[in-house]
């Protein structure tokens, strides 16, 4: 069964203890998974966060991104080793707070664009570092889902085809792929076909509209996405992702220059209102009242 979740970056750029009451609202709206953004894993107050998530009844995933100056594809071996150590600490923290998955573009900082195509050396560095990391975290109960981004945010990993190849060459049960419908809408010729190509390597899905607005109000074919996931017998989480446009640093980082709902709460409620029927309907049935959100093929 696919479980529907939401990332709290719709409300704020990082999840802190003061945000804990949000978990009860997320559960009350009908979500089953919460994804919290964490970036400084040394600063996480583990016990209160673990208690808050456990009491909410929500499953937990964690999203993150590499800090500036880090990278598994850096030509500097010391930087690669430091990044691997940072990721190991991140995984330990995710396990300590009761999470099962760390997701994000864990190869280079978002927005880093060196001005050249990915090199064979960069690819080999990533494979080697992920193999080491996979062996380190095996059996800890937490996996890493590596996210391809669009060409405007990274040069290293843009497509499902490359993500599949990366996962196959790493060959670890602990390292897989996060498929994000926003990035796929830019980079893929066919979103559903790209998604289907990840069968066996797909660890996580982000449901994000083509303009980062409310899922179901744009042209991402969410009905086709859900049908593909069912055909794949995917049994992980599918998480709504957008960002708090009211926070200047987030708006700048994500190019969010307008509001898509009257409030973050309104966004979350409208998103689940649009998507929930796709999770409960038989894959062979039309989308009915929500036909507008996915009637077209990708």
Describe this structure in words.
With about 300 residues, the chain is an alpha/beta fold. It contains 10 helices and 8 strands. An 8-stranded parallel barrel has the order 1-2-3-4-5-6-7-8, surrounded by 6 helices. Helix 8 (about 220-230) links the parallel strand 7 and strand 8 (about 235-240). Residues about 280-298 have low confidence and may be disordered.
Strand order of the largest sheet: 1-2-3-4-5-6-7-8
Beta strands, count: 8
Span between termini: 23 Å
Q: Assign an overall shape.
A: globular
Q: What is the C-alpha radius of gyration, as a whole number of Å?
A: 18 Å
Output the helix-strand order: EHEHEHEHEHEHHEHEHH
Sheet with most strands: 8 strands, parallel, barrel
Into which percentage range does the β-strand content fall?
5-15%
Mean pLDDT equals: 92
Q: Quickly give the structural class.
A: alpha/beta
- Sequence stretches where pLDDT stays below 50 over 5 or more residues: 282-298
Give helix % range. 25-40%
If helices are DSSP runs of H or I spanning 4 or more residues, what is the number of helices?
A: 10
Give me the secondary-structure topology.
Blueprint (H helix, E strand, L loop, with lengths): L2 E5 L13 H9 L3 E5 L8 H11 L2 E5 L13 H20 L4 E4 L15 H18 L5 E4 L13 H11 L4 E6 H7 L3 H6 L5 E6 L14 H10 L5 E4 L7 H7 L9 H17 L18
Parallel strand pairs: 1-2, 1-8, 2-3, 3-4, 4-5, 5-6, 6-7, 7-8
């Amino acid at each position: 069964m696919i479980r529907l979740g939401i990332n709290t970056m719709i409300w704020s750029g990082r999840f802190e203890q003061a945000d804990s009451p949000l978990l009860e609202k997320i559960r009350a709206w009908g979500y089953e998974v919460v994804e919290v953004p964490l970036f400084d894993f040394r600063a996480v107050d583990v016990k209160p966060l673990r208690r808050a998530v456990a009491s909410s009844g929500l499953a937990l995933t964690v999203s993150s991104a590499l800090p500036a100056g880090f990278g598994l594809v850096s030509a500097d071996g010391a930087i690669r080793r430091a990044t691997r150590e940072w990721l190991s600490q991140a995984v330990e923290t995710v396990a300590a707070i009761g999470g099962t998955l760390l997701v994000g573009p864990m190869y280079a900082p978002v927005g880093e664009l060196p001005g050249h195509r990915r090199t064979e050396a960069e690819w080999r560095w990533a494979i080697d570092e992920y193999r080491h990391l996979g062996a380190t975290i095996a059996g800890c109960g937490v996996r890493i889902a590596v996210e391809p981004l669009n060409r405007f945010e990274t040069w290293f990993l843009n497509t499902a085809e490359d993500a599949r190849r990366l996962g196959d060459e790493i060959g670890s049960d602990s390292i897989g792929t996060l498929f994000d419908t926003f990035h796929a809408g830019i980079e893929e010729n066919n979103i559903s076909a790209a998604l289907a190509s990840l069968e066996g390597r797909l660890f996580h899905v982000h449901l994000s509209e083509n303009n980062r607005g409310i899922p179901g109000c744009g042209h991402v074919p969410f009905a086709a996405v859900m049908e593909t996931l069912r055909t794949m017998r995917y049994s992980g989480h599918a998480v709504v992702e957008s960002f708090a446009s009211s926070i200047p640093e987030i708006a700048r980082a994500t190019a969010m220059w307008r509001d898509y709902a009257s409030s973050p709460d309104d966004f979350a409620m409208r998103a689940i209102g649009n998507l929930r029927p796709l999770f409960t309907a038989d894959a062979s049935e039309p989308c009915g009242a929500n036909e507008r959100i996915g009637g077209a093929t990708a």
